[in-house]
Amino acid sequence: MATSSELNTEQNLYLYEIAVGATEPAPVEQLLKEVDARIHRAGGELVEAQVTRGGQRVFVIAEFAAGAPAVFEPAEFSHGEVTGPDAVRLVGANLAEVKAARPSAGYLVEWDLPADLDMESYLARKKANAPKYAEVPEVSFLRTYVREDMDKCLCLYDAADEASVRRARQAVSTPVDRLHGLESFRP
């Protein structure tokens, strides 16, 4: 059965990726506070931010009622290089529950989607493969953000280690283009 997130194409969710050089927790915490404030000033809501171990990359999901405005002007944002906003769709989780709980993840997998894959086929594949995660019980699939332009998706997992995440990806016959361990930070 499809979740409401799979059926709702009007989520108004946007991905921003920030490449930073921070290695200490304090600069990342400061960056997250600034990101949250900028999104709110622009009329949006920070849904979640995932920070890679070592603070090198930050993946930000924000919700805006009517399209994503320019939130990170390069001249005004000195924390790193920002790409996005890219419209994304939440798959495998309920947006209200994600916003309420802000569940942390241990790992983020980036998958560069094949050029011939469309959203409908992607969602059908995801639904068909989801039961196969049971083959790797030490891994919990949490949620995916798939870009509406079908460039890539970000899949979030709770797992003991990278090898477990890779086994889970093999179980669902899905590649890993980049695998990031995540830190736990709250804006």
Description:
This protein is α+β, with helices and mostly antiparallel strands. Helix content is 26%, strand content 34%. It is built from 5 helices and 8 strands, in the order H-E-H-E-E-E-H-E-H-E-E-H-E. The model is unreliable at 1-9 (pLDDT under 50).
List the helices and strands and how they pair.
Elements: H1 4-7, E1 13-19, H2 25-41, E2 44-52, E3 57-64, E4 81-91, H3 95-101, E5 107-112, H4 119-129, E6 139-147, E7 152-159, H5 162-171, E8 178-183
* Structural class assignment: alpha+beta
List low-pLDDT spans. 1-9
Distance between the termini: 34 Å
Number of strands: 8
Bin the strand percentage.
25-35%
Q: Report on the biggest sheet.
A: 8 strands, antiparallel, barrel
- The proportion of residues forming helix, as a percent range, comes to 25-40%
Mean pLDDT: 88
With strands numbered from the N-terminus, the spatial order across the biggest sheet is 1-3-2-8-5-7-6-4
- Judging from the principal axes of the Cα atoms, what is the shape? globular
Report the total helices: 5
H and E string: HEHEEEHEHEEHE
Radius of gyration: 16 Å
